[in-house]
Amino acid sequence: PEMDGFELIDKVREKHRFDSVPMIAISSVFEPEDHLELLENEKIQGFIKKQNPFDENDLIQQINYLMNNF
After folding, report:
1. Fewer beta carbons below 10 Å: N end or C end of the chain?
2. Average pLDDT score over the chain
3. Which residues contact 9 (CB under 8 A, 6 or more apart)?
4. What is the pTM of this model?
């Protein structure tokens, strides 16, 4: 790939029209310090560790939370 997910998040956040769009990162690469930095810098509003099988309930819960609280 040309860029990883963290680079993609930065590219999307560079566009000011997407400033208010909540983002949930789904990643199989789990480095806690990376995800904490993204959350603390408000680049993402949620994170789900991708695993097999994928737990869609985690995603649904985070989407519901963001819809009700963002």
Report:
1. N
2. 83
3. 23, 25, 38, 43, 44
4. 0.71
